[in-house]
Design brief:
Length: 322
């Protein structure tokens, strides 16, 4: 299945880039960008930043629509069934295009069949903790978890998401057992962490750190290999006792299977314009997301590199297939 997908993606990215105006009158009406997470989270925020700037480049509005749930499969399957005319696109994540293929016996969409538009960006998460637990370090968490296996709870964006994989990776590396509590996104999980209903949560920097700064939750580490320049005092998971620990979330744009290449090129060029915009770049970096080059080639490379890594992680962590 993956080899077929590689052939499809490779064919879709051949040829020189065309101008935004090249697709004979396209777009002549608003475009809908589906985001598979609820409003208020990092993915939703990123979608709205891109929709505004891409819309200006296209001289046409892009409307963001949230279709959350089931580890992004609800939004993804909606786009997979949409008319392939370039007027419905998906802000997909690594969960959508890589992880879900290893967690579901039968997906309601083919992750290799989407028409690629371009890679948006990539970023780490931060491990947050409820204030009631008074955890100051990862060692505190591990000690508490080993004292009462399965008693501590850890929230995620949903089963199979980067947040969930980070939780599974941490448990495996630390030799502990936590109780996974999946939500439909950060916007639903965060209030539960703030109230103390859950103990831990791997969240994106953009939605997690404002709650840390306001004193509502604590933060223990970041999931990148190096510290972030904007968070120089926050240690990495590797520095905190788990060498090699790295789980990143990445974001991309794809279109329904069969979308004409002439139209995905128009969208790709608009994405490149957005990612080259200094204001957009600053806003993304403030969210903890490193802007990519906006190309389908980079997306293809990311998928190819990540498939064996995620497959191995899912197998080692014994994450059950649904």
């Amino acid at each position: 299945m993956f080899r077929a997908g590689i052939r499809f993606f490779a064919a879709a990215v051949l040829g020189a880039a065309t101008s935004i105006a090249a697709a004979a009158g396209y777009p002549d009406r608003p475009i809908t960008m589906i985001t598979p997470f609820p409003a208020g989270g990092a993915t939703d925020g990123l979608a709205r930043i891109l929709a505004e700037r891409m819309g200006r480049a296209l001289r046409q509005s892009i409307v963001v629509e949230n279709r959350a749930g089931a580890a992004t499969t609800i939004g993804a399957s909606h786009v997979a069934r949409a008319t392939p005319d370039g007027y419905t696109i998906l802000l997909a994540t690594n969960s959508t295009l890589v992880t879900n293929r290893f967690l579901f016996k039968k997906l309601p969409y083919d992750p290799d069949a989407f028409a690629p538009i371009g890679m948006i960006g990539i970023g780490p998460m931060v491990l947050l903790t409820a204030k009631k637990d008074h955890f100051k370090t990862l060692a505190d968490v591990v000690q508490a978890a080993k004292a009462k296996p399965g008693a501590l709870t850890i929230a995620s964006f949903g089963t199979g998401t980067s947040s969930h994989l980070a939780a599974e990776y941490f448990q495996k590396a630390a030799g502990i057992k936590l109780l996974h509590v999946p939500y439909k996104g950060s916007a639903q999980a965060m209030p539960q962490l703030i109230s103390g209903e859950v103990d831990l949560f791997f969240d994106m920097v953009s939605t997690g750190m404002p709650q840390v700064d306001s004193g509502k939750v604590g933060v223990l580490a970041i999931t990148s290999k190096q510290r972030m320049s904007s968070l120089p005092k926050l240690p990495t998971m590797s520095e905190s006792g788990y060498p090699g620990f790295e789980i990143l979330a990445w974001f991309t744009l794809v279109a329904p299977p069969g979308t004409p290449e002439a139209r995905t090129r128009v969208l790709d060029n608009a994405l490149k314009v957005a990612l080259a915009d200094e204001t957009v770049r600053k806003r993304m970096l403030a969210m903890g997301i490193e802007p990519s080059d906006g190309t389908a080639q980079t997306l293809l490379k990311q998928i190819k590199q990540e498939i064996p890594v995620i497959q191995s992680l899912v197998q080692r962590a014994n994450i059950p297939v649904q």
